[in-house]
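Recall that a protein's primary structure is simply its ordered list of amino acids. Everything else, from secondary elements to tertiary packing, is in principle encoded there. The following example makes that idea concrete.
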Amino acid sequence: MSRPTPRSNKRQAPPAREQRRTPAGDAASLVAILVLRLAGHLTAAGDEMSKPAGQTSARWQVLATVEDEPATVASIARALGLARQSVQRVADLLARDGLAIYLDNESDRRAMLLQLTTRGRSVLRTIQAAQRQWANALGAELGEKELRAAAATLVKMLDLLDSVEE
């Protein structure tokens, strides 16, 4: 049977004074929170736009990434900022459903290339048509100048965060 350890009468030092965020830090935190909320809305809107084509936002993103040229799953994941495993799962489903095919990769025999099929390209065009209507309506509400300014700030943040991660 173990004996309880006696309580120390020593007072613990108060925790180090927490450093407050600067006004710029508060602004950065606010932007981060708003972008995360926005991401949820964009995913839901993407799911709605892709649903008539029998797709999801995740499947749409992968289809769109290989629209112009085939790519490896790893490069698709990097472009989308996602884990390779999640993109692999989606790519396999797209291939299973006949929307994409895997091709041999001359540059790296271990990493096959994902390419759209004719059916995949047709599905992507259907989703893109819905997205154009959605984007035009949103753009009309907010205005091009305001949206381009927001985009410029987000690009700067992404560039900064990407440089920190490298």
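Helices lie at 23-50, 57-65, 73-80, 84-96, 118-142, 144-165. The longest strand covers residues 100-103.
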